[in-house]
Amino acid sequence: MGASIKLQNQFLRAAINLHGAELTFLGNETNGNILWSKQTDHWNRVAPNLFPIVGRLVGDSYHFEGKLYKLSQHGFARDREFEVVEQTENSLRLRLISNPQSMDVYPFSFVFDVCYSLTENGISISYETQNTGNEPMYYSVGGHPAFQLNEPLENYYLEFDEAIQMEREELEGSYFSGETSYYGVSNHLNLGEELFEKDAFVLKNPVFKSVSLKHQNGETLVQMNCENWTAIGFWTKKGAPFICIEPWWGWADHANTSGKLEEKAGIRKLLPGTTEQFSYSIENGEF
After folding, report:
1. Both ends of the chain: CA-CA distance in Å?
2. Long-range contacts of 23-28, Cβ-Cβ distance < 8 Å, separation of 24 or more
3. pLDDT at residue 281 greater than cutoff 90
4. Letter string b/e over residues 60-83, b meaning 16 or more CB atoms within 10 A of that residue's CB
5. Where are the domains of the chain?
6. 26 phi/psi in degrees, rounded to 5
């Protein structure tokens, strides 16, 4: 496990592990950590960063230029050591660079930065991906933060900043089946374990810019903001004291995928010598 770096301003503090560039603490002395503290056996992560894929590939593999590659769910960044390239009291830039080990499973040259910056009432997270190779690079990226729940899941709900047509494409065995479920037009989704019986609850191409996790008494635990996510996932495990709110730029395979990386649904194409940046923020009114 990598070393942990602390960030702090006058309002709150954060801790980021160099292993996976993973945020493990966000809070203050008064209210504690709003992230799941990983003190039970339900899940061995807190807020992994997903790169160079989001979700699972059929057969945990893909083809590119006639060659078969094996790549596990959510990619390898969450299990690699990042290096510090910039650091202040309240901001941090961590970097992962392609190497022979990564090229064995993902044949692209890249620089992948995860950047954190504390604000008055939360933290901003940015992903910057640079294609340092000579050919187009195909990738996805995303976040997976888990937030602590101190009561049963049914005592919470999600509130979006505008009413949406809530249509969920169903996952079956970690892959999208093509089947959809419709939950009506609303800015409100009550949480319950039945929503997650077939894995994550995923909304593709969301039109809303923020989603809040709220207690049924109206208290806001967390608000996540993003201008340009291409999908958002919500996930938990049965009986687990957390809920994940996951901003994505990409998603898992469809069950009928061709298996070719460049044809993967939701995949991004990054031209040689170019950089793409995506950001989101986590806020809590109690800070």
Report:
1. 29
2. 23/47, 23/116, 23/123, 23/125, 23/145, 26/122, 26/123, 26/282, 26/284, 27/284, 27/287, 28/287
3. yes
4. eebeeeeeebebeebbbbbebebe
5. 4-283
6. -150, 115
Enter the tokens of residue 26.
């966000």
Query: Per the structure block, which two tokens stand in for 139?
Result: 């990738």
Q: What is the pLDDT of residues 253-264, one digit of tens each?
A: 999 999 999 999
Task: Compute CA 12 distance to the chain's CA centroid, rounded to the nearest angstrom.
Answer: 22
Q: Which CATH number fits domain 4-283: 3.40.190.290, 2.40.10.10, 3.40.50.2300, 2.70.98.10?
A: 2.70.98.10
Q: Phi first, then psi: give them for residue 11, nearest 5 degrees.
A: -105, -35
Contact 129, 275 (CB under 8 A): yes
Helix/strand/coil for 59 = helix
How many CB atoms are closer than 10 A to CB 43? 16
The model's pTM is: 0.96
Distance in angstroms (rounded) separating the CA atoms of residues 284 and 273 = 37
